[in-house]
Amino acid sequence: MFKGKNSKDYGILISAMPDMVKPKRRGDEVTIPGRNGVLTTDEGCYEGYTLSVECGKRGTEQLGDIVTWLDGSGDLILSTEPDKLYRARISNAIAISDVIYLYNSFLVQFQVFPFKYSVNAIRSHADDLTLTAPTSIKNKGTVYAQPTITVYGSGNITLTINDRSFVLLSIDKSITIDSERMEVYKGAVNANNKYAAMDFPRFEVGMNTIRWMGRVEKVEIVPNWRFL
């Protein structure tokens, strides 16, 4: 499945699915003169990677539609992991060649974001939370999550997740913090000037405490649980 469409609808035959990949953690190794071994720096981030799918199709019907479909970016679901969703884009030029009479083969390479997401959670919003009092929540994924948090309230508000505090200034009804995009907004209007923090909220693996100070009506959270 790519961009909401199923390869079966185009009569595509999959001859080889990609291996499961654990993304590479980003860091550097520095050799220091006079010191044994190397000094390793860890950015706490992961590299994207490529998934290759070998495809084929009998006949030439819908080849134009296939080429149009396999373009750009979208959500990707593989039959080998039907409960997980990748954020992907087509990274290669797709060449369709006749290797056998009336049988066309082609390779599709998806450049994917390093994490996978729960298909059911995204489709049903089953993991979304509405809080009216401070609480603790458990990260359901296998790696830290970058949530989208909407705070409803007024005035100056301090949102605290674990031991990190995020100050929101002069809030009028609501404000949204999008940790993945590293943006703050209200509706379609940028509100970065109302955000007084050096970084963005994240939920670590395990339990996470959420509390706040100020006039807060409720806090809505799209946690974006992720998997390696």
Q: Give the second-level CATH assignment, the architecture of the largest domain.
A: Beta Barrel
The portion of residues assigned to helices is under 10%
Helix/strand class: mainly beta
Low-confidence stretches are: none
Q: Total number of helical segments? A: 2
Oligomeric form of this entry?
A: single chain
The topology string of helices and strands comes to EEEEHEEEEHEEEEEEEEE
Hey, roughly how much beta strand do the residues contain?
Answer: over 45%
Query: Can you give the mean pLDDT?
Result: 91
Number of strands: 17
CATH class of the largest domain: Mainly Beta
Number of domains: 2
**Integer-rounded radius of gyration:** 22 Å
Quick summary:
The chain is mainly beta and 228 residues long.
